Every structure is written in structure tokens, then in C-alpha cells.
Sequence to fold (267 residues):
Amino acid sequence: MNRFALWICLPLLLCQGVSSRAADTGNYLVGPGDVLRVSVYGNPDLNTTARVSGEGTILFPLLGEIRIGKMTVSEVSDTLARKLADGYIVNPQVSVFVEDFRSKKAIIIGPVKNPGLYELSGPTTLMELISKAGGLLPEAGHQLTIKRKGKAGKFSEQPITINLKNLLEKGEAALDVPIMDGDTINIGKAGVVYVTGEVRRPAAYQLEDNTSVLKAITMAGGFTNLASKGRVKIIRKSDGKEKVIYRAPLDTPVKPEDVIVVPESFF
Fold:
């Protein structure tokens, strides 16, 4: 299955996993704007819905303002239970659910249908975010990078690199990484080679791994009967200058933006 066919099936696969992911929010890091629904077993008068303030606090009955910024959902539950047990309720059982995810955002740019800023509705993987953005466009390349902010709020100097081909076509699940708040996902464009002259389908073609001159010509339908196979040339730009490789061997590796010219035979 190629990567574009995979994206047709992807929404179905995602829907099948929703129930299991919905239960996996205990490690979700609560932040400003999130809406929490808190239930205290046997004490319905304490059940409440609260929005996390910009300072990372919520208002809770009996306890007043509670600071929960930078806590996970599980930690919020433990904190409320501990405070309620301190003179209010014996052995309180507190459940916390995220009713509305508002605090986490990520940016996706590059060849997807709808690039832009997206709110992360709970734990979100790379494939889920790309699906939210409408899926990959045909010109998408095989590689993307994720710039991630550290604890100091600055982007790491070394971005995370993901091989999309291995993720989508080979199903390497480890590459479907969790997306974090503040991530910027940049999907690269595929390299293009131009094939012109005496080939059957002159056009621009997307570069694949280890593309040679012969492979590029094959993608263009092969030589015509008038082609001079021994006089193929490559027009290549390097450092802003144009370089011509005459009589290029057919096993020569092709670089992005190369122009392969197949001249007509004199005989």
C-alpha cells in the first residue's frame, strides 16, 4: 500500500483507536484553558467543572484556589484527594477528566492540505496531526522535522527527524511519535528531476531513493527510437551556477532540480 492510499484508510484506523486513547489521558499535562470535570465519590456536592486559569489554578469547593499547573491529570487527582483528606473527607476517591482540551497547540507546515496551528485534543500522535491537517499532498517528501521546545521555552538546536516513507509504507510504529505542546512540524517537499528531449513522457518527476539517470528516464517512459543514448547530459545548478555534465553515464546519481536532456541521434 502506498502512502497516499494509506491516508484514505487512516481516518478509519484512527476512529478504531479513539476509545483506547480516551482512557489514556492520565499522563496528559494540564495547562491553561483546559476544562476539568472533577468527581468525588459519595460527595456529589463537591462534583465540579473548572477551567484552568492562565496562572495554572482552578477553584474547587471547600479548598478554594488550587495550583495545578504543570501537573498531569493523575497528579491533579492525587493532589485534590490529599487536600480533601486533610480535615475534610475520610479516604476521598477523586476522579478527574479533561472535558475540553484547550491548552496545547502545535504548528504543521509544508505540503499538507490545511497547514496551520492546531489545538491538541488530548494525547496526539504525528499521524493524527497530519490527518487533522487534511493529509499529505502529492509533492510531500520522505522526511519531516519536529522542532520541540525545552523546559526553558526555547527550541532545541537538534530537531527530531522522521522518515515518512518508513512510517507510512513500512509501518514503523515507533516513528509515530507523540506531539507535544509548542511543536512545529515541517514536512519537506520531495525533490524533483526534469527529463526532456527524446523520452516518451517529458515532464518533472518526483525523486525517489537512489534515483539514477536511467531510473529517471525510465520514469519518463524510456527512450524514443530517435534517442542518442550515449549523449545524455545533465544540467545541474550548484552554488547559483549552472554546470553541464556531458555524456553522463546512465548510472549517475541524480540530484534535486537536475535537468536530464536526451538528445536526438544524428543517425
About this structure: Residues 192-262 form a domain with the Outer membrane lipoprotein wza fold like fold (CATH 3.10.560.10).
